[in-house]
Amino acid sequence: MDTHAALFEQGKARLEMLRQLQPRQSESFNKKMENHGITRRDFMKWTASVSAMFALPLPFSSLVAEAAELSDRVPLVWLHLAECTGCSESLIRTDTPNLDSLIFDHISLEYHETLMAASGWQAEENLEHALEAYKGNYLLAVEGAVPTANNGAFLTVGCKGHTGLEIVKHAAQNAAAIISVGTCSSFGGVQAAAPNPTGAKGVYEVVDKTVINLGGCPPSEKNIVGTLMYFIMFGKLPALDMFNRPKWAYGARVHDNCERRGRFDAGEFVEEFGDQGAKDGYCLYKVGCKGPYTYNNCPTERFNHHTSWPVLAGHGCMGCSEPNFWDDMADFEKPLGRQLLHGVDATADTVGAVILGATAVGIGAHAVASIFAKPLED
Ligand code: FSX
Ligand code: SF4
Ligand code: F3S
């Protein structure tokens, strides 16, 4: 059996198993779509786009459709640690609900500090109940870094005064899968930027299980919901890159799919914000775009109902889905120039061959010549 056929069979078996479980929502997914004015046609288009996002052939859309309907069978526990809640906002702050936010509404969300009605002792009880009742079956999503200095005392949550470190370790123990939502929980994020006084770390550094890292400050709603959908459909983790990010979302550089790429190859650069080049949509490399060093699908999937993404809005990519980007990618409005990135010297000599991957990407000689015609500021 080829890999796609085998994966399809796995998905069918997984969904059959979920169908046997009790629904946890009183209203069906179809009814919710109807209430929000989402047509069957919109739904079919969405299922096809989710399959395409996973680079799976069209027949998989039937599994996506079924997984959406059965998403209320999968318990989800969502923790907030040291962060700004931008990741949750990325998902729910939409003026009209779309299918991505509707999945989040339908999935069995057992605990989410900023969305649940409960507070105080009741909230703590809900968490304890969910971890016990769905032992081994719940998905654990974590937003925010884990402060570890002074035994985690820089972050306590709830009326029992447990540290974030204790809570995440406890919740990770019996999770079916763990997803770090955002760069903070994936790699520490801004909290872990030098000098990192709270000893902030990514979740994968404090638990002894595989953690899926959804880099991005914040990640797009597509990458969050796509990862939930993948787990609902197949009950397992997708293929991951060297930083444990799903390859279907983080498999290409921002630079590879950027709409300004033609400008880069032609050597047409914005020299300073507000100049004619900026007005004409020239490449933002010289004003600090880190798209050539950053793996994410922002140009293709965008944010806020596919409305926009940083480069389309006129600012360079800041490399927000990469580990240590606050330290490694700064200054954000200057080219990386002569700095070390993941241990590689990002100088003119290596940019063509190593960082940009000249042969694989086919960067125009003109662009390289043009970037380095003048010495870069450092
Ligand atoms: Fe971090 Fe998420 Fe950046 Fe904020 O919570 S990834 S600071 S967008 O919100 O964790
Ligand atoms: Fe786009 Fe930035 Fe690459 Fe220029 S350097 S093509 S703006 S990603
Ligand atoms: Fe982040 Fe760059 Fe995308 S800054 S949102 S990875 S374009």
Write the layout of secondary structure elements.
Elements (H helix, E strand, L loop, with lengths): L2 H18 L8 H7 L4 H14 L6 H10 L5 E6 L5 H7 L6 H8 L1 E5 L7 H14 L5 E5 L2 E2 L8 E2 L4 E2 H10 L3 E5 L1 H5 L12 E2 L9 E4 L6 H14 L12 H4 L3 H4 L3 H5 L10 H4 L18 H4 L8 H4 L11 H4 L11 E2 L2 E2 L2 H8 L2 H4 L3 H7 L7
Parallel strand pairs: 1-2, 1-3, 3-7, 7-9
Antiparallel strand pairs: 4-8, 5-6, 10-11
The chain binds ligand FSX, iron/sulfur cluster (SF4) and FE3-S4 cluster.
FE3-S4 cluster binds next to loops.
Keywords: 3Fe-4S, 4Fe-4S, Iron, Iron-sulfur, Metal-binding, Oxidoreductase, Signal
Enzyme class: oxidoreductase
Subcellular location: Cell envelope
> From the 3D coordinates, which CATH architecture of the largest domain would you assign?
3-Layer(aba) Sandwich
The CATH superfamily of the largest domain bears the name: NADH:ubiquinone oxidoreductase-like, 20kDa subunit
Sum up the overall morphology in one term.
globular
| CATH topology heading of the largest domain | Rossmann fold
Q: Report, as a whole number of angstroms, the end-to-end distance.
A: 54 Å
Query: Helicity, in percent?
Result: 40-55%
Q: For this structure, what is the CATH class of the largest domain?
A: Alpha Beta
Protein name: hydrogenase (acceptor)
Subunit structure: Heterodimer of a large and a small subunit.
EC number: 1.12.99.6
Catalytic activity: H2 + A = AH2
